[in-house]
Please model this.
Amino acid sequence: MNHHIIRYEVDAQGIATLTLDYPGKTMNVIDQAFMDELSACIERMKSDASVRGGIITSGKDSFVAGADLLSMESNIDAMAEMSVAELLTSCASLSRLLRQLESFGKPMVAAINGMALGGGYEICLACHHRIAADAPGVLVGLPEVQVGLLAGAGGTQRLPRMIGIQASMPFLLEGKQLQAVKAKEAGLVDEVVAPDQLMAAARQWLLAHDTAVQPWDVKGFRIPGGGPLDPRVAPGFVVGNTLLQAKTFHNLPAPLAIQSCLYEGCQLPIDKGLRVESKYLAMLSRDPVARGMIRTLFVNKAKAEKGMHRPAGIETFKCRKLGLIGAGMMGAGIALVAAQRGIEVVLIDRDQAAADKGKAYSEKALTKLVDKGRQSREKADAILARITPSTDYELLRDADMVVEAVFEDRAVKAEVTRRLDAVLAPDCVLASNTSALPISLLAQASSRPERFIGLHFFSPADKMPLVEVIRGKQTSDVALARALDFVAQLKKTPIVVNDKRGFFTSRFIGAFVDDAIGMVAEGIAPALIENCARHAGMPVGPLAITDELSIDLSKHAGEAQAREFAAEYKPGRSVPVINKLFELGRLGRKAGKGFYDYDDSGKRLWSGLAQHYPLKESQPLAHDLKQRILYVQAVEGARAMEEGVLLAPADGDIGSILGVGFPAYTGGPFCFIDGVGLPRFVAEADRLADLFGEQLRPPQLLRDMAANGQTFYGKTARA
Ligand code: NAD
Model:
């Protein structure tokens, strides 16, 4: 047998060591080849009488990070076409193998030397003893739920049998992960030892134990804390399910399926429980929710972070010194995250006091981390020392990169660009953090438009993971590559889009908010609008968001657009409502009144709105409103694709979820459209447009795709 993936060695004492070391990969992943070798190793240990037990460990820094990204992508498409029988077999394959591992008759120890997540941790669960190295990289958990799946190789059955049903819920239902010491406290591992003692400890345990029977295979086994019907446990399912639906509004099938695995599976012997689990895994694998979430949040996000749009053949760029112009809300946040990544930052504003205020943001945020024990004072001080607040552009002569985050005003930005041109090195990339002004237009102020690019961060910039990279008409490949390397250095996820008013994310969220405020003018009950948005999966209601941003900001942003783009500007449906609130002095949360009234006890929708916009006698169905809220965004996404703003559907899907809160369960607008099916999507969008207006009318691109049997992803993807 040729051991490519698992090194198999037996020592003089009869202990077999299985070292997982997938060639050509930085991390071990579980795919068919891996499973075939593990199966062969089990056979070998079983048939070799001199072997008394085995250790599973990893030859890499991490133990096993889970399923293989690439095989996962092809698997999700293949699964959609499998027969039910094939699907069930496929979904149970790792589960069956791990059942063999725990029951072939010899004791097995997991020596966890690094990250053991998903299937990786399920291998550990199928061993008879788990020892973790006390090293910072060791992390164990079952994050499958975060991509719409469940821990389907025994995770939902072994973990509750090991630590109890209630205790297992945060790990299974939320994907909570723990480092070594905490994992031991929670019972996820049995021992924690110094990294250099790991193999010795595993050997010692095997020499002292020859039993190879899991507790759940011993007659009379009882789940710690009681089974699902135990009066101490059963109410947890009722309450848990209610809380879950109150949070997820029935949009996420995975947490419900996991609860079913726990409730049904834990009443049965382990073999039957594992079968229940495989059945629910098969069900989720077929669901567009899991397919979309895996595609966007796992596969495509990883591709974006690896630079899928980075022009090839350009030397890797490392930013050592960053200039930031504008130390307001955005500039201050970007300065903090850059300094945290080891970059020297010169933070410039109009006067020293404003620049100092920008640095104070970092001081406050870092002090909070220190107080919570999440950062040492020394490290926090070192980060702060990297930020130099100033008004002096001369300090930027040796900057590698500059981000401009001054007021959203073309003239102010142009003035800053001219001042920068006078001092920056010729190859220094200049990025604007504008939310919506076309990059090519802003670049006109520069004598080097080829180095000008858009880097649209989201607020708060030190926390939000997305950066929308906007390529202007003249932006060079080098500038794009450097901007992407800079985003990677900040450990953020980039999407790359072409230059057009509103780029992708601003126009996408804008379509939703504009349409929803327009509903107020139509006489739709504000409470219905807010609740339907939340039930559709939006994190915050559209009226509440607008109050947060402030009514005056929305009004002025609209007026600025009208001024700047007189020829193409079409006033949105929201304009009369926003103007009315402005006129009434209801400026939003900061004023204590807007769409809502605010006081110390919280907020309530303003009842006076009905005097200005009387409610329709017959209110639309909640179902239709939820559809309207999702479709108006998906249709806008498709328009952005048709107009060439998006380079690929992946950018739109990632950007919509990570940037502007489109519901993650959809996988983004393009996964959503694919999941519904193009012909059905077009028909439903037409129905909604007839009911509510042309903003919902599907663009020609979708009609053509529906007619040609095309999809955005998979085998039938449009070229
Ligand atoms: P802000 O008003 O909080 O900060 C702007 C800062 O720029 C102020 O400190 C101001 O003193 C400074 N400034 C103005 N003119 C200057 C000049 N000539 N030289 C140096 N400094 C100058 O604004 P913000 O919210 O941080 O937004 C900044 C930019 O980021 C805008 O283009 C905005 O559209 C964009 N943006 C904002 C958000 C957001 O949520 N706030 C999100 C993404 C992008």
In short: The chain is about 50% helix and 10% strand.
